[in-house]
Amino acid sequence: MRVPFLDLKIQYDSIRSEIAEAVTRVLDSTQYILGPEVTRFEDDFAREHDAAHCIATNNGTSALHLALWALGIKKGDEVILPVNTFIATAEAVLLAGATPIFVDHDEYYGIDPEDVERRITRRTRAILPVHLYGQPAQMDAIAAIASRHGLLIVEDAAQAHLASLHGKSVGNWGAATCFSFYPGKNLGAYGEGGAVITNDVDLATRMRRLRDHGSEHKYTHVVAGHNYRLEALQGAILSTKLPHLRKWTDQRRANAECYNSLVKALPQVSVPRVREHAKHVYHLYVIQANDRDALKRYLEEKEIGVGLHYPTPLHMQPCFASLGYKEGAFPRAEKAAKRILSLPMYPELSEEQIEFVSKSIETFYQ
Ligand SMILES: Cc1ncc(COP(=O)(O)O)c(C=O)c1O
To answer: Fewer CB near the terminus (10 Å): N or C of the chain?
Structure first.
């Protein structure tokens, strides 16, 4: 049995006619950038996250940069973020001109609030927690720290559409929250896409301006901005997919439960821990495993797709050498990077496939 890491085709096949209709609608309209299709998606996506405003962008990296930029983060500022994340989180801080300050993670892979507090300096302006793998970071503790020190919070929810903590959706803990609609994400475009949501109307206005060359009206540029606009085709595709997202999220959660029940008993493996009162949306299902590299090779030989998210914590990436971090600075992240393994995860994964993956892991250790 072949089990791909991700299968976008099954889902596309299930909504093929809806997508064809949306694409034809946009092509016929000849409005290809922003416009009513994008506005409709923005309204619906904000509503899904109990937020007031949504600004759709051309990808998640732009969304992060746009939020930091519009919040006035600039050269000389420090932004605290987890060391175990995709590089885009840190790149956005650099794009804003600020310095990324890395922090280790807690036992749920979220930014560790105690480490955050230790690294606050006079220059710290913002905390940028990442809801990694689809599980909300410890936002109650982080919000308390931010309020004590007068810091901004920007959430990176690129992997966490519809996730929540204490019943409060991601997108409501800080000034702004950023999403990616990269095709493999829980809500994926058929191309690039991203968004920022916020409850601050002034911030929303600033972000809308910066997204479109700083203009309020065509050829009147209030500030110098950028081109971070979403294409209408992606807006229409995302609007078509959004009504299915709750069902797809439930399927991911059921798949995670199924994996848990099958691999939990193996002493060589630990299954993902879920924070109390958190709704984990399982963008990724990440185990920790003894002899990880050999297990990875074994599963790949059996045509089971697996991944590493991420093999190298950011402080050990060559591009951040100038920040001066040394190996050993983030013991949890460094240890986890050697043990983590992402198993196949998508809504349409079948029980038979999950059983095959779990059985294969068991056989490897036998
Ligand atoms: C945690 C995280 N932040 C930011 C991004 C950037 O999103 P994009 O690839 O849409 O630019 C991603 C997506 O890969 C991500 O996983």
So the answer is: C
Q: Domain range spanning residue 189?
A: 8-243
Cβ-contact 286, 341 below 8 angstroms: yes
The pTM for the full model equals: 0.98
Residue linked to tokens 């559409």:
161
How many structural domains does the chain have? 2
CATH code for the domain in which residue 318 is found = 3.90.1150.10
Using one digit for the tens of pLDDT, what is the confidence trace for 224-280?
999 999 999 999 999 999 999 999 999 999 999 999 999 999 999 999 999 999 999
Q: How far apart are CA 217 and CA 274, in angstroms?
A: 47
Both 203 and 343 in one domain: the answer is no
Q: List all residues 6 or more positions away from 172 whose beta carbon is below 8 Å from its beta carbon.
A: 49, 50, 51, 199
Q: Is the distance from the beta carbon of residue 59 to the nearest atom of ligand 1 less than 6 Å?
A: yes
- Whether ligand 1 lies within 6 angstroms of the CB of 58 is answered as no
Query: What are 233's two structure tokens?
Result: 């085709």
